[in-house]
Amino acid sequence: MGGESFTGSAVRLDLVRDAAAAARLPEVLAERCVHSLAERASCRRCVDACPTQAWVIDDERLGIDPARCDGCGLCAPACPQAAIIAPSVEPLRVGSSGRGGLQDATDGAAMLACDRAWPGRSASPGAMQHRGLEAAPPGAHGDGIVPCIHALGLRDLARLAVDGCRRLVVATGDCNVCPRGGAVRLETRLADLARLLDSRRLPLLRLERLPADRWREAREGAAPDGGPQLRRRAFLSHGLGLAITKARVGFGLASAERERVGTVGNLLPHTARPGALVPVAPAIDRAACTGCDACVRLCPERAIRLEAEAGALAYRIAPQDCTGCGLCVDVCADRAVRLDHWVVATPVSLPLDQASCARCGVRFHRPVIDRAGGSPRCPVCERKGEAGRLFRVQE
């Protein structure tokens, strides 16, 4: 009987550890990943951002090694298409306790602390598994305590700003000696957000640091905010971890948001205001473009579109819809597309000339037709040259 009890305890411990491991692993929305859209996609943002080299990408697969993943969540903000949903970053929105003093620093703020702010202790599910399920700081309950504050992305910060948050109160360990310290840091993303907000004449989101114990004191003394909590994923463990239910709330996991990525340009108000900036947008070199429409067909957010106005065709670039995934650059055989950073969000139209190919007779369009060298040719015939016989399948 004692053997059965020991075996049962071991099984229960395994179930708890399995539940903790599942809780820390990111979810991948394959329909958003650029690698599911084109074999030529060059994006490696998740791989480059991972401090434990848990992400693997090669010619056959893109996946994550569960044994290496520590749940830091740094891959999520690195993904331009928001195809990775990490469960670990949950800013805690708080109100004022009305008691004055230290609690005034949390009035209407969002609070976030890394689990290494308390030396020798950890509150993240991933770290708990690797450290033998060690207890979190007393009274923490995991609220606002995350593996790494730098996993809060620009979209996350924009949502906080739009929701009326004006202060982000944080506590951390020493990022300079942390293995995760080489990531794009929260301060850099806040500076980028400030640039976007200032171009729209919107209030800034400011960073305030507190020592770990004072941060915890302020958080425990503050009243919970009645507004929505910005949780990427909630996990409900049933029994001893026999079932885990994923509750999609807050950070873009609703069905409508699964269909389209919420870019920062679209999240922030007043994007149409003159001078409003976006972090990245495509640009087309009209002299190099042959009008093949590859960028139009594969842009997942339609930041480059083919539009007809009054009988004339044009490429329409919508900067606010660009995620910076780079797929348009990857698929352009003519190297006519590039990504420009920090540009004005004003839409750009590139008028297209239409003609019939002098060789195969197909109708085509492109921004520039060089008539000086003879009759115009479509992109396929232009590449084919005079060699061989060309057969073209019309759509």
State the share of residues found in helices, binned by percent.
10-25%
User: What series of H and E elements makes up the topology?
Assistant: HEHEEHEEEHEHEHEHEEHHEHEEHEEEEH
Number of separate strands: 18
How big a fraction of the residues is strand? Answer: 15-25%
Estimate the global geometry from the Cα principal axes. elongated
Low-confidence stretches: 1-6, 9-20, 97-105, 122-142, 226-258, 386-395
* Count of individual domains: 2
Spatial separation of the terminal alpha carbons: 73 Å
Mean pLDDT: 77
Count of helical regions: 12
What structural class do the secondary elements suggest? alpha+beta
Q: What is the C-alpha radius of gyration, as a whole number of Å?
A: 25 Å
Characterization of this structure:
The protein is an alpha+beta fold. The chain folds into two domains: 2-267, no CATH class; 273-395, 2-Layer Sandwich (Alpha-Beta Plaits). Helix content is 24%, strand content 20%. The chain is built from twelve helices and 18 strands. Strands 5, 6, 7, 8 and 9 form a five-stranded mixed β-sheet that branches. The chain has a three-stranded antiparallel β-sheet with strand order 13-14-16. It has a two-stranded antiparallel sheet with strand order 1-4. Strand 6, helix 4 (125-130) and strand 7 (145-146) form a beta-alpha-beta unit. It is elongated. The termini are far apart. Mean pLDDT is 77; it is low at 1-6, 9-20, 97-105, 122-142, 226-258 and 386-395.
